[in-house]
Amino acid sequence: MSLTILALLLLLSMNLVNGQFNNNSSVECPFRLSCSRNKNQIIEFPSKPVSKKFLISDIDCKLKHLVLSDPKNCLPSLFLTNNFSLFYPFRSDFSYNNITFFNCSSVGVHHLKSWDQRNPGVQDMLSCPIFATDSTESVVELDLLSCTRMFDKVLPVTASYYIRYNALSLSWSETTFPSQCLEYDQIHNKSKKNLTSIILVTTGE
């Protein structure tokens, strides 16, 4: 095969790759989001003093929905210094609720004695001593009598089904996140070692 043909093939492949990230040059994308559920992705939101990184646990581009999780399995501590506007341009799927935060650092155990802390995958109270509850939950039943109540915060999420299970259910619309910013992978990468870093360059209002 001649060098000229090889050069043309190389140029064509480069144009195809660039086209994946420039589907529409007139559309400004805060970031690119892969629609492949088999592709682990990290999404990074700007925050002070340091940005916040999350894993995309699940994504459905047809329903415009995704689920984020904290790599440190400590979502309650995130809301000590951040509001939900951190996740702009995404929005919550739930109505606003009153969430109460407790400091359980004095308890000194990995898990509380409540039924909630017996489930697999729950937060470790030694590495993440901040506990979040919904306004309808009992402090006694959750074994929080030895913890210190910190403050209440109104958030569009539930503590019992999402925050304590390290999950945030979010959605988007084409008014805030154009469909041209979505990448539909033709070849799904099933390797869990490959992480795609997504950096959000816009800030919440």
Q: How would you describe this structure to a colleague?
A:
This protein is of the alpha+beta class. The protein has one domain. It contains 2 helices and 11 strands; from the N terminus they run H-E-E-E-E-H-E-E-E-E-E-E-E. The protein has helices spanning 3-21, 75-78; strands at 33-34, 41-45, 52-60, 65-69, 91-92, 97-103, 130-134, 148-155, 168-171, 182-183, 196-199. It has a 6-stranded mixed beta sheet with strand order 5-9-4-3-2-11, with no helix packed on it. A 3-stranded antiparallel beta sheet has the order 7-6-8, with no helix packed on it. It has a two-stranded parallel sheet with strand order 1-10. The longest helix is centred in the N-terminal third of the chain and has 19 residues, at 3-21. The model is unreliable at 6-25, 186-197 and 199-205 (pLDDT under 50).
- Residues in helix, %: 10-25%
Number of strands: 11
The largest beta-sheet arranges its strands as 5-9-4-3-2-11
| pLDDT averaged over residues | 76
Secondary-structure blueprint of this entry?
Layout: H1 3-21, E1 33-34, E2 41-45, E3 52-60, E4 65-69, H2 75-78, E5 91-92, E6 97-103, E7 130-134, E8 148-155, E9 168-171, E10 182-183, E11 196-199
Parallel strand pairs: 1-10, 2-11
Antiparallel strand pairs: 2-3, 3-4, 4-9, 5-9, 6-7, 6-8
